[in-house]
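Working notes for the structural subgroup meeting. M.R. asked for a predicted model of this chain before we commit to crystallization trials. I am recording the input and output together here so anyone reviewing the notebook later can reproduce the run.

Input as submitted:
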Amino acid sequence: MKKLPIIKNSKWVDFMSSKKIDISGKVILMSFWTYPCVQCDRHMPYLREIWNSINHDKFLIIGVYTPTSKYGIDKKSTMDIVISLDINWSVIFDNEYKFCQKFQNELWPSLYLFDQEKNLVYGCYGKFKYIELKENIKNLLKKNHIVSNIFENKNPENVCFIEIPNTKKDDIKKSITEDCKLL
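Returned structure, recorded in token form:
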């Protein structure tokens, strides 16, 4: 994967008031996470700091939540998780593992950084280098080059490897919105 896959007709955790998110010309950080996952929980404060320190007109974090247990497969429990982790950016509900498959992602947490043209320019699994990630985002916003290679750590530390279970649509309540689209 070298380009940001098309993200539309996605299921979104319905805590954001807007129905459409404009991604054109923005730097996008895709954050794949699950619950319960200690490593995912540990990286949330760093993502929150990045989110709170960068102009949202030019930068977005899009979370991709993948339920891996019975907890978090419906709207109420997913909302509880999002609220408990103090996540205030958009979150895709990936109960059918569509995004995990598009990104060939089997590790949580995982981060994928895309430039304004939606090219994948940086990524990491598990324990990430916070300062390096923030510098890469700032450099992209200034249209400068990034400071390190994509997924340079081939043996990531502190990751959760989870076998993707067979999840049936009927197991998920219809309370997750399906009409949100990225432009």
